[in-house]
Amino acid sequence: MPDRRTALKVVSGGALAVGGAAVATPSLGLVAGPAVTTPRPERPGAHPAGAGADEAGWYRVAELSALRPGEPFQATVRGDEVDAWSVAPDRRLGAVWLLREAGDAVRALSAECPHVGCQIERAERVFRCPCHVSDFDLQGRCLTGPSPRAMDPLDVRVRDGGVFVRFVRYRLGTAAREVL
Ligand code: FES
After folding, report:
1. Does domain 58-166 match CATH 2.102.10.10?
2. Residue 68 has what DSSP assignment?
3. How far apart are CA 101 and CA 44, in angstroms?
4. For residue 16, how many other CB atoms are within 10 A of its CB?
5. CA of 43 to the centre of ligand 1 (A)
6. If 128 and its partner were Cys, which of 61, 123, 142, 162 is the partner (CB 3.0–4.6 Å)?
């Protein structure tokens, strides 16, 4: 039968093992590398998540074949979120509205409301920001509400069947359009 001193050794040894495992677990994560995520389309026709931007800042956000003329298509922009200290891969950076026009021509509008940045959605025959109810026509012009300007345009191009946008953010709450 173990005496009191032996029992204390067993208890303290167990505690050390548990503590060591807790310390070692993050280290194991570093050795094994970051978790692997499987890209999945956000919706039919959208480009698989996590594609990110090329060196020139173009994000592939949709396939042209998914866009129907006159029918706005909302696409998600995903990529690396970078700040002064770190890079977080495969984050949702924002959303854009794509409008297919004649032929392969496409226009892109940021879905970020110029008022204070809520996401602009589709409502009947307009775009609507639900936060303070700003309405925009399908060209992005502001019809009603507190938005100080029209929806913000984004550069867009079509290449190899894909729709690419150069995703930028604009200053909110100002009549003048200013890229941040
Ligand atoms: S954030 Fe869109 S109307 Fe206020």
Report:
1. yes
2. B
3. 20
4. 10
5. 25
6. 123
**pLDDT tens sequence across 105-158:** 999 999 999 999 999 999 988 999 999 999 999 999 999 999 999 999 999 999
Q: Choose which residue among 116, 142, 151 to substitute to test ligand 1 binding: the one with the highest number of ligand atoms within 8 A of its C-beta.
A: 116
Euclidean distance between CA atoms 164 and 158, whole angstroms: 6
Please identify, by atom number, the ligand 1 atom nearest to the C-alpha of residue 132.
3
Place of tokens 């003329």: 69
The pLDDT of residue 124: 87
Give whole-number Cα distances, 109 to 15, 26, 97, in Å.
58, 42, 5
pLDDT single digits (tens) 70-99 = 899 999 999 888 888 888 888 899 999 999
Helices (H) and strands (E) in the chain, counts: 1, 10
* Distance, C-alpha 46 to centroid of its chain: 13
Query: How far, rounded to the nearest angstrom, does the alpha carbon of residue 169 sit from its chain's CA centroid?
Result: 12
How many residues does this entry show for the chain? 180
CA dihedral 61, 64, 68, 69 (to 10 degrees): 100
Q: How far apart are CA 71 and CA 62, in angstroms?
A: 14
R_g (Cα) of the chain, nearest Å: 25
